[in-house]
Amino acid sequence: MTLANSVKGQTVCIAAIKHPMVRAQAIRFGISEGETVMIQEIIPAGPVIVRKKHQELAIGRKMAEDIQITLVS
Fold first, then answer.
1. How many domains are there within the chain?
2. 62, 61, 70, 66: which is closest to 42 by C-alpha?
């Protein structure tokens, strides 16, 4: 399952970021494999907004499609 396929309100764990360029950008956002984030909002054909602790991040749809996740709750 990818971050782009998640549902608002889910808590997910970042399982894998395969593409090196996407991994580098995610690390700049403070997101890496093993991190737990909550899905705040999914904008149709737009970004996925996630919450990590007290910070909200908008992750572009293309980038979200390259981030593999596992469901926590």
1. 1
2. 61
Q: What is the pTM of this model?
A: 0.91
Distance CA 29, CA 44 (A): 22
Eight-state DSSP code of residue 54: T
Q: What is the CATH number of the domain that holds 21?
A: 2.30.30.90
Tell me how far CA of residue 7 lies from CA of 19, 25, 48, 68, 73, in angstroms. 23, 22, 10, 14, 11
- Residue-number span of the structural domain to which 60 is assigned: 3-71
How many C-alpha atoms does 6 have within 13 Å on its Cβ side?
33
pLDDT by residue, tens only, the chain of 73 residues: 999 999 999 999 999 999 999 999 999 999 999 999 999 999 999 999 999 999 999 999 999 999 999 999 7
